[in-house]
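Per your request, structure below.
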């Protein structure tokens, strides 16, 4: 019962499919001749595609990474239960045990089934966590003082869309007019949070701000080690 996640490039589904087709057994020709049927996870959701003959199956699970149950728990559960009780992976209605001759039907491969492309969220550079939220160019701008920083957020084409009141308009010098700190960030992970902060560029330059944050990290580590 190989189960292949759809997303990982290091453990790609095409390789998994070839492995399943290379398994030597008495019904290997029948398995290779079986087509791909949809995996009906429930009445409204198709969780992937499966090739199956008897109790040997190869499943492609949509929108899943290396740990399939973590990404698609209901689909993984349904596959497990259907295998456990000798039912077809596609619907869970057909018996696949000894004395049956079940084969899935459908196309020879899953190339025609494409993932929905999700819109990627806009990223912004948060100067308290530059290593994971800022590009190399933004870090260079922070170090040489050329970047405009508003409440620890670098002003660019993304942040002006996400926080227009805070950072102002793209192409206009300075930050936004907001002074209340409502658009500030917290948590240091590049997402909107609840913290407060200044709504003007940090006095002393962006490089000083980066240096200050590194100093705060070091002080925090020292405090932790002294506990």
């Amino acid at each position: 019962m190989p189960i292949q996640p759809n997303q990982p490039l290091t453990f790609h589904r095409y390789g998994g499919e070839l492995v399943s087709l290379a398994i030597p057994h008495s019904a290997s020709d029948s398995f290779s001749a079986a087509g791909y049927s949809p995996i009906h996870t429930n009445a409204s959701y198709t969780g992937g595609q499966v090739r199956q003959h008897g109790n040997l199956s190869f499943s492609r699970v949509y929108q899943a990474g290396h740990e399939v149950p973590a990404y698609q728990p209901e689909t993984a559960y349904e596959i497990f239960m259907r295998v456990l009780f000798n039912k077809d992976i596609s619907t869970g209605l057909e018996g696949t045990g000894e004395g049956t001759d079940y084969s899935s039907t459908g196309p020879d491969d899953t190339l025609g089934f494409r993932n929905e492309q999700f819109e990627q969220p806009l990223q912004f550079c948060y100067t308290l966590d530059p290593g994971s939220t800022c590009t190399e160019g933004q870090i260079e701008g922070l170090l040489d003082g050329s970047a405009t920083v508003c409440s620890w957020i670098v002003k660019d084409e993304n942040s002006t869309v996400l926080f227009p009141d805070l950072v102002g308009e793209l192409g206009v010098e300075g930050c936004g007019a907001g002074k209340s700190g409502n658009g500030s960030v917290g948590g240091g992970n590049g997402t909107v949070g609840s913290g407060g902060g200044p709504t003007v560029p940090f006095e002393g330059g962006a490089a000083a701000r980066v240096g200050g944050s590194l100093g705060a990290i070091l002080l925090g580590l020292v405090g932790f080690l002294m506990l």
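The beta strands are 3-5, 36-40, 46-53, 56-61, 149-150, 153-154.

Regards,
D.
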